[in-house]
């Protein structure tokens, strides 16, 4: 299912790719389950029913909304897209939303091992966006944590690494 994606004109596109030794269903679950996101996304819990048009919220410090958006596309386990706003940060709280899209591609090795190529596209930043610079270092840390969790069961916090 998808809905018209009404996001501001792009001023930049950020693309991040991670190959994860897990099938698409497991990666989808890790992207859409608060139990998982709390482990690899800096303690943030995702909350949504992931239906097109629904709200998606990323909860921090209990039930405070750190980031929020609206589900634009939800095609489990292949594609998920939502708008992205960061009301908790005073530098960008009034900025128009950008868009985050996850593409999950099934991979299989010659020996039959299953993996997922996860591509994250963050785009639709409004002109003069400060959000664009804030999220640039964040996605690699989130994806590294996701990969590590799904492949090893460990939950490192890459957010403070330089």
Please outline what is shown here.
By secondary structure, the protein is α+β, with helices and mostly antiparallel strands.
How are the secondary structure elements laid out?
Layout: E1 14-20, H1 24-32, H2 34-40, E2 45-47, E3 55-60, E4 64-75, E5 79-84, E6 98-108, E7 114-123, H3 131-135, H4 138-152
Structural account:
With 162 residues, this protein is α+β, with helices and mostly antiparallel strands. It has one domain (14-152): START domain (Alpha-D-Glucose-1,6-Bisphosphate, Chain A, domain 4), CATH 3.30.530. 22% of the residues lie in helices and 34% in strands. It contains four helices and seven strands, in the order βααββββββαα. The protein has helices spanning 24-32, 34-40, 131-135, 138-152, and strands at 14-20, 45-47, 55-60, 64-75, 79-84, 98-108, 114-123. It has a seven-stranded antiparallel beta sheet with strand order 1-7-6-5-4-3-2. Strand 2 (45-47) and strand 3 (55-60) form a beta hairpin. Helix 1 (24-32) crosses helix 2 (34-40). The longest helix has 15 residues, at 138-152. The protein starts with 13 loop residues before the first strand and ends in a 10-residue tail after the last helix.
Main sheet overview:
7 strands, antiparallel
* Name of the top-level CATH class: Alpha Beta
Stretches with pLDDT under 50, minimum 5 residues: 1-9
Tell me which CATH architecture applies here. 2-Layer Sandwich
The domain tally reads: 1
CATH homologous superfamily grouping: START domain
β-strand percent reads 25-35%
Give the fraction of residues assigned to helices.
10-25%
* Mean pLDDT reading: 90
Structural class of the helices, strands and pairings?
A: alpha+beta
Terminal CA distance reads: 39 Å
The strand line-up of the biggest sheet is 1-7-6-5-4-3-2
Shape: globular
CATH topology: Alpha-D-Glucose-1,6-Bisphosphate, Chain A, domain 4
The number of E-state strands comes to 7
Q: What's the alpha carbon Rg, rounded to whole Å? A: 15 Å
């Amino acid at each position: 299912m998808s809905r018209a994606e009404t996001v501001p004109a792009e001023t930049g596109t950020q693309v991040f790719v991670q190959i994860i030794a897990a099938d698409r269903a497991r990666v989808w679950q890790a992207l859409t389950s608060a139990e998982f996101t709390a482990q690899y996304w800096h303690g943030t819990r995702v909350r949504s029913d992931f239906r097109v048009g629904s709200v998606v919220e990323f909860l921090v410090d209990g039930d405070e909304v750190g980031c929020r958006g609206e589900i634009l596309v939800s095609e489990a386990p292949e594609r998920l897209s939502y708008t992205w706003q960061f009301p908790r940060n005073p530098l960008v709280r009034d900025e128009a939303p950008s868009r985050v899209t996850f593409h999950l591609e099934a991979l299989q090795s010659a020996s039959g091992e299953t993996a997922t190529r996860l591509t994250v596209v963050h785009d639709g930043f409004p002109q003069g966006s400060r959000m664009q610079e804030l999220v640039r270092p964040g996605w690699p840390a989130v994806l590294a944590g996701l990969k590590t969790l799904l492949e090893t069961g460990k939950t490192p916090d890459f957010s403070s690494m330089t």
